[in-house]
Design brief:
The complex is a heterodimer of chains A (115) and B (115). With 115 residues, chain A is mainly β. Chain A is 0% helix and 52% strand. Chain A has no helices and eleven strands. Chain A has strands at residues 5-7, 10-13, 19-24, 31-38, 42-50, 53-57, 64-68, 74-78, 87-94, 105-106, 110-114. In chain A, strands 2, 4, 5, 6, 9, 10 and 11 form a seven-stranded mixed sheet that branches. A four-stranded antiparallel sheet of chain A has the order 1-3-8-7, with no helix packed on it. In chain A, strand 4 (31-38) and strand 5 form a beta hairpin. Chain A is globular, with a radius of gyration of 13 Å. The model of chain A has no long low-confidence stretch (mean pLDDT 94). In chain B, the strands form three sheets. In chain B, strands 2, 5, 6, 10, 11 and 12 form a six-stranded mixed sheet that branches. Chain B is built from no helices and twelve strands. Chain B is 0% helix and 52% strand. With 115 residues, chain B is mostly beta strands. In chain B, a hairpin with a 4-residue loop joins strand 8 and strand 9. The chains are: A mainly beta (115), B mainly beta (115). The A-B interface holds A 31, 33, 35, 42-45, 48, 55-56, 58, 88, 90, 92, 94, 98-109 and B 33, 37, 42-47, 50, 52, 91, 95, 97-108.
């Protein structure tokens, strides 16, 4: 069974550009969450989706957005990139709604460097 | 709001010995989950062990065990018979029960294994 797949794994963008990151959850999983990991701020929650609906959102500016498709794949977009957006972006998936302690599985992340 | 604190930025242990990583948290909730995740150099988050707050018994997974003290809001991880492959960043994380898959993370502890 394939794990959580994130693409691209590495990318370099210029300030002011936008970027789209993709996440394919484990087959059958309907919940996807995104996290940003930086040396300074650590791991911070971005947003969470279940069945194409955003269920929860972290404290990030509106430049950060996401969506989930009917096949549970998710994308996140960052517009008008800033140097501080350089980070590892982690995607996680879980089965079902967050009603129980379903295990959360992570992808290997997408490394974004903004120059 | 919930917070998670890991006060040990780095720990080192001799191979085959035992090491304990500390984690404290703050919450007003009575039902929640606690996790330890391992992040090796590949950066993929790997679940080590989980604990449901309503369970008094401490969780155990092979060489990994926790000391869960609910009243003290403490959740330490003990690694027995440390192996070179245990070298990684270890993160303590908190999740509310039934509302969201959002994880609130500690700052992490870098574990070094000395051969």
């Amino acid at each position: 069974k394939a794990g959580v797949t994130q693409t691209p794994r590495y990318l370099i963008k210029t300030r002011g550009q936008q970027v789209t990151l993709s996440c394919s959850p484990i087959s059958g999983h309907r919940s996807v969450s995104w996290y940003q990991q930086t040396p300074g701020q650590g791991l911070q929650f971005l947003f969470e989706y279940f069945s194409e609906t955003q269920r929860n959102k972290g404290n990030f500016p509106g430049r950060f957005s996401g969506r989930q498709f009917s096949n549970s794949r998710s994308e996140m977009n960052v517009s008008t990139l800033e140097l501080g957006d350089s980070a590892l972006y982690l995607c996680a998936s879980s089965s079902g709604a967050p009603l129980s302690g379903n295990t959360i599985y992570f992808g290997e992340g997408s490394w974004l460097t903004v120059v | 709001a919930q917070t998670v604190t890991q006060s040990q930025p780095e720990m080192s242990v001799q191979e085959a010995e035992t090491v304990t990583l500390s984690c404290t948290y703050d919450t007003s909730e009575s039902d929640y989950y606690l996790f330890w995740y391992k992040q090796p150099p590949s950066r993929q988050m790997i679940l080590v062990i989980r604990q449901e707050a309503y369970k008094q018994q401490n969780a155990t997974e092979n060489r990994f065990s926790v000391n869960f003290q609910k009243a003290a809001k403490s959740f330490s991880l003990k690694i027995s018979d440390s192996q070179l492959g245990d070298a990684a960043m270890y993160f303590c994380a908190y999740r509310s029960d039934g509302k969201t898959y959002q994880l609130i993370w500690g700052a992490g502890t870098k574990l070094i294994i000395k051969p």
